[in-house]
Amino acid sequence: MEILVCVKQVPDDYVEVHLDPASGTPGVSAIEQVNNAFDAYALELAVRFCEANGGSVTVASIGPESSQSSLKNLLAVGASQAFLVSDAALSGADEGATTSYLSQLVEKCQAEHGSPFDLVLCGKESTDEISSQVGAMLAENMGVPFVSSVVEVSPCEGGLMAKQETEAGYSNYQVTTPAVFTIAKPNYDPRYPTIKNKMAARKAKIPTFSAAEAGISTQTNRVTCLGYTEPPKRQAGVRIQEKEAAEAVNKALAMLADAKVL
Amino acid sequence: MNTIVYLETKEGKPLGGSLELLTPAAALGTVTAVVAGVSPEVAQEAAGYGAPVLLLEGELGCDDALVAALEQVIREKHPDLVLFAATQTGKDLAPRLAQRFGSGCVTDATAVEGDETHKVVFTRPAYGGTILEKLALTGEGPMFANVRTGSYSRPQTGAAAPVETMAAAVAEDAVRAKLVETVTEITELVNLEGADVIVAGGRGMVDAEGFKLVEELAQVLGGVVGASRPAIEAGWVSRAHQIGQSGKIVAPTLYIACGISGAMQHISGALGSKYIVAINKDEDASIFDVADVGIVGDVKEILPLMIQEIRKKNG
Amino acid sequence: MAYIISDDARELLKDVKEFAEKEIKEQVKAYDISGEWPKEIYDKAIEMQLHMMDVPEEYGGLGLDHIDQAAILEQIAWADAGVAVTLNGNGLALKPVLIAGNEEQKQKCCDIIVNGGWGVFALTEPDAGCDAGNGKTTAVRSGDEYILNGRKCFITNAQVGDFYVVTAMTDKSKGTRGMSAFLIYKDTPGLSVGNHENKMGIRTSVTSDLVLDDVRVPVENRLGEEGTGFITAMKTLDLARTWCAVIGVGLAQRCIDEAVNYAKQRIQFGKPISSHQAIEFKIADMEIRTEASRQLVAHAIRLSDLGMSFGRESAAAKCFAGDSVVQTALDAVQILGGYGYSREYPVEKLLRDAKIFQIFEGTNEIQRMVVGRSVISSH
């Protein structure tokens, strides 16, 4: 099975993002860019699938040239090749435009890879914008089967079985390939790289294309951001710090009674 | 403005979160509520919220069929705006349809407001909820959005609007992902969105045994158990209890956060609470920045005493 | 500050940091109490190849720069010094093989480690600690074999070893020149392990006696010529001291981090104690000592990499880092006050872990002797 995993670089989501007072836009410039967590889960799932059933995993991304570093890190944990499209003309794309670029990039990667992909994976959402749209749109654009929030993929007669995590349990879907899945958090974590793989991956060259080289034509955004605000802050209230737990509890319960919330 | 509201159903009933959408839709103009896979009686009941209901009939048991059927409805009705609840289904359907119509799509909107210049302005949280975006949509087709449950209250019921029935013609090749089985693992009813009191536990509860204290406190307060992601991932409680970015957005009168440090991804789901109590032994925990009452102490010491005191009060 | 390493190594270090934080730092708390050897942690570390950083590239190793390796070992020690000592045990055992072994021996020992095994260096004896030349373990030639008898003590990884480098006297009359080194493999008859020491600190590292009772070792398992064992052991220690210092620096850095985090959030007299000068100065001294230790390490590594003599600098690094980490851990306990003395808080363990750095791989008294003699004799 030949699998392509689409990867986005996002500001490290351990860091809280606030508006930059000067520009009024999200202040992310000082935050380290990392691979989106759900994309890393997608890669791990893909690599495990190929380890069990054969095949290889390719990763592809659209982003600044600095994304090469994050892509190299993915080569250290099971991806066999990586492609990057880096072009200022493609920055600031909305979900629809991103989808269009990605589907053209899939074509380009297939040409570079030398064979078509049976499966394209995306994280179920990115931790920055959290819009959870691109995977679904990509499947529509490619006209192929789509399953969201997948946590397990296994081969079955005529194609693939995908286990989708749902609010109340799970659903199993059977699809023919090629297909697009978005990946939720499986019940395992991405592996750590071995030192040897890491150092070899760091020396790799990531083929990087301009939009023209990748055959990507630009598309107008359909989503316009009119502005950003921060939600109103809650005021911190009273802090209770007592030596005796019983005293703290009594104080707190008295306050709850006063506020009539009990 | 013409709006289609898709009423998502669960066990044959419209979800509260999708009925709420009738409120902003009505404020924008005329509304059609579309519902699929329910009995005519249920459709009739839904029409009691004031919007005419279009009942889709046919084999619509999976997303692929629903997308095809809704595509057909939209092509016929030419709405300006199509709204979904921001559930797993809503988040799948909206972008797929938007792509089919060359439209823009908004995920997790918390406000949908009319605007002279942009027709509609959407508000949505990004970056784990620390930032709100105001978005406008352009494009060839209608605007699509899914809206967070709890953003609006559902309209009053009154005189019933008409119900129209439409047979959805879903082409055979429209179903590409074949639903083989659906398994319900979580049978408990967890009504976090409607809860008046929520007691939530996090990593600080240490283990499954510790988490039981959260459940006990919720029980004596007549509240619902919530949890942050670490507690879910540790398997102490099912993900139906998750509050925050990847779980439920809640707005109870009283929210008690036990052993929860207050990562934005979690707390953004509880900021609508009227009164927040936090118990954490780390006096630096960011949960204290949003708590009305913060108790610095060990949850394993505090909770048993609190449970005991409340039991006493309850008699 | 930290070691100046390449961008690529910095990326690797991020993974190691994540590993240290997620898989070591919290898990070791329970092992510190129980004294059990945390096999689950080591299995994961082996998977990541953290146990084989000393295997040369030509024998299947990683080809890391030594300074990159130092940064990685420091990061592991930051999470737990005992884990770093265990992992570094492989490096300690490989050094004499690489110094004195033949190609076959080198490849065999490297293969054992690459495949997830453990090496053990056994020099110290009950009556021969600092005075290593006074060993009582004997190796008597008998045909194509040596028969070894004796007892080694305080041997890191003895219980889990796959190969052992053991020193023994082949000719007592020649003193240190009568000592030879041997490779003994696991499961060799007569080789057994005593009880593991119930130690004050670095409790995630297993330390025990190694007993040799008529252990027959083929002649081809001798490392180098007869009589070169002491020289091999001393060269090994010259190299090893630097790495011991690396671990001490990691532990000291942890002390700084814990103390600073606490001092910034602990409010007394209406402000964080970090803004009280008494604490600020203490933190400054902790940092100065730790960074000075780190740079002594970096200098010793550089000299060694350049093929220059580094024995004095390596001993200086170990001695200074060892004394420094004990003082820095004491300072961390002092900054945390009552909490520093409580087992509920992390720094109490750090102090227990720190003390060994003045003792093992040659006490600091021995290090001073090495440095002193080197200075005096070169004048």
> How does CATH name the architecture of the largest domain in chain A?
3-Layer(aba) Sandwich
Q: Please name the two chains that share the biggest interface, counting residues whose Cβ lies under 8 Å from a Cβ on the partner chain.
A: A-B, 76 and 82 residues
Strand % of chain C is: 15-25%
State the secondary-structure class of chain A.
alpha/beta
Q: At CATH's second level, what is the architecture of the largest domain in chain C?
A: Up-down Bundle
Order of helices and strands of chain A: EEEHEHEHEHEEEEHEEEH
Instruction: Count all strands of chain A and give the number.
Output: 13
Structural class by helix and strand composition of chain C: alpha+beta
Low-confidence stretches of chain A: none
Uncertain spans of chain C: none
DSSP helix fraction of chain A: 25-40%
Per CATH, the superfamily of the largest domain in chain A is: HUPs
In round numbers, the mean pLDDT of chain A is 95
How large is the radius of gyration of chain A?
Answer: 22 Å
**Approximate helicity band of chain C:** 40-55%
Total discrete domains of chain C: 3
Explain this structure.
The complex is a heterotrimer of chains A (262), B (315) and C (379). Chain A is an alpha/beta fold. Chain A has six helices and 13 strands. In chain A, helix 2 (67-75) runs antiparallel to helix 5 (195-202). Chain A is globular, with a radius of gyration of 22 Å. In chain B, helix 4 (63-77) packs across helix 5 (88-101) and helix 6 packs parallel to helix 9 (299-314). Chain B has a seven-stranded parallel beta sheet with strand order 7-11-6-1-4-5-12. Chain B is built from nine helices and 18 strands. Chain B starts with a strand and ends with a helix. The longest helix of chain B is centred in the C-terminal third of the chain and has 16 residues, at 299-314. Chain C folds into three domains: 7-114, Acyl-CoA dehydrogenase/oxidase, N-terminal domain (Butyryl-Coa Dehydrogenase, subunit A, domain 1), CATH 1.10.540; 119-226, Beta Barrel (Butyryl-CoA Dehydrogenase, subunit A, domain 2), CATH 2.40.110.10; 231-377, Butyryl-CoA Dehydrogenase, subunit A, domain 3. Chain C has twelve helices and ten strands. In chain C, strand 2 and strand 3 (145-156) form a beta hairpin. In chain C, helix 1 runs parallel beside helix 4, helix 5 packs antiparallel against helix 6 and helix 5 (81-100) runs antiparallel to helix 7. The chains are: A alpha/beta (262), B alpha/beta (315), C alpha+beta (379). Chains in contact: A-B, A-C. Chain A binds chain C through residues 69, 72-73, 192-196, 198-199, 202-203, and chain C through 7-8, 11-12, 15, 18-19, 44, 47-50, 53, 62-64, 72.
